[in-house]
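ARCHIVE CARD
Drawer: 12
Card no.: 0347
Subject: one protein chain, sequence and derived structure
Cross-reference: see card 0346
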Amino acid sequence: MEKIKILVVDDESRMRKLVKDFLEKKGYEVVEAENGEAAVDTFFESNDISLIILDVMMPKMDGYEACKKIREKKNTPIIMLTARAEELDKVLGLELGADDYVTKPFGVRELMARVKANLRKTVYREEPAAEEAPAAEGNFGRLDIDLDRYEVRKDGKPLDLTLREFELLKFLSERKGQVFSRETLLEKVWGYEYYGDVRTVDVTIRRLREKLEDAPGKPTYILTKRGVGYYFDC
């Protein structure tokens, strides 16, 4: 079985080596890049990178710009590394399409938990056998959600969702009408302790609405129960 390949991007060679050594001990293959420009080139030259660990503050091209360029064409999971704990930095990364972030300094076990969580549905999930029943699909008016193939179509046209956006939509649509707090969604969808940063849910909901809705300011699919949380309806 081929090793899962991860791209580690950081302008500090010591940080790259720390992450690389740890991941290789866990059985992953690691490729490196020292700035955002090199990261974009390396990523698009390879067709088998399963996850990107991307530092924010780098020369030539920062992590935000690199994330944006990668997201224009690919939905490969991206974990942002930021040395700053300000909420604005984290939100900006999520707005640009990052799936996750880790604030420096971080423990390697914390990083490993994030890596596994973000690979969970792209690499580790089992593919359905050929003789199994067709993929389960949820039809909600103009919206079709293919629950097995991780595809969403509106009016027959595919929507370009990130893994995390799909996971959140899948969770809510399977529980139509049930209201979930942001804390519960972090636990159930993100799948691990997220240190109470509930803005992560708000940002992901906002991005989903921009892709699902005709008028994101007046949503018809993912609705807000003021003071409680979010729920799916149509």
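Annotation on reverse: The helical segments are 13-25, 36-45, 63-71, 87-95, 108-119, 163-173, 182-190, 199-212. Confidence is low (pLDDT under 50) at residues 125-136.
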